[in-house]
Amino acid sequence: MVEMDSDLKTVEYRQNALQDLMSDRELLSAVQKCISRLNELGRRLGEFNDEANMRNGLRLLRCHEDFVRDPPDLTRAKSAALKEVVRYFQAVGSSEQFQAACSFVGRVGTRGGV
Predict the structure, then answer these.
(1) Which is nearest to 78 in space by CA: 4, 19, 1, 9?
(2) pLDDT tens per residue across span 45-90
(3) How far is CA 49 from CA 53, 105, 110, in A?
(4) CB-based burial of residue 40 (10 Å sphere; 0-12 exposed, 13-18 middle, 19+ buried)?
(5) Are 92 and 76 in contact (CB under 8 A)?
(6) What is the average pLDDT score of the chain?
(7) Residue 105, class by beta-carbon neighbours within 10 Å (0-12 exposed, 13-18 middle, 19+ buried)?
């Protein structure tokens, strides 16, 4: 939590996030679920890196789409750090790039894609 070059504001930011997680089991569970889903995304990315093809690419995009469309419920968070995660998911979900990727996956999927 504290590094040699950490200022007090950074340490407090981290402490508040940790306190949030320690005081709310549901919030901790949501963050753990988020980590699990990130690991799944990493696995799909690894599959794509091992064998870059349309099938693996679409699987990766679908996994990403599912993750962003159904993010962990962190609305109970009080800390600035976890509130930033909520805003991040909202920003990604409403971005033109994300919408275009979802549209692409939808079009390919209806044409006999993966």
Answers:
(1) 19
(2) 999 999 999 889 999 999 999 999 999 999 999 999 999 999 999 9
(3) 9, 19, 25
(4) middle
(5) no
(6) 91
(7) buried
pTM, rounded to two decimals: 0.81
First to last CA, the chain: 44
Question: CA 49, 52, 56: angle at the middle one, nearest 5?
Answer: 95
100: pLDDT strictly greater than 60:
yes
H runs (alpha helix) in the chain: 8-23, 25-50, 54-69, 80-94, 96-109
